[in-house]
Amino acid sequence: MEWILNFLWSYLCASLGLWLLRKLTRGRFPEKNAWLSDVPEGVGCLAILLVFALLIGVLLLWVTTRAST
Question: What is the pTM of this model?
Answer without folding.
Answer: 0.41
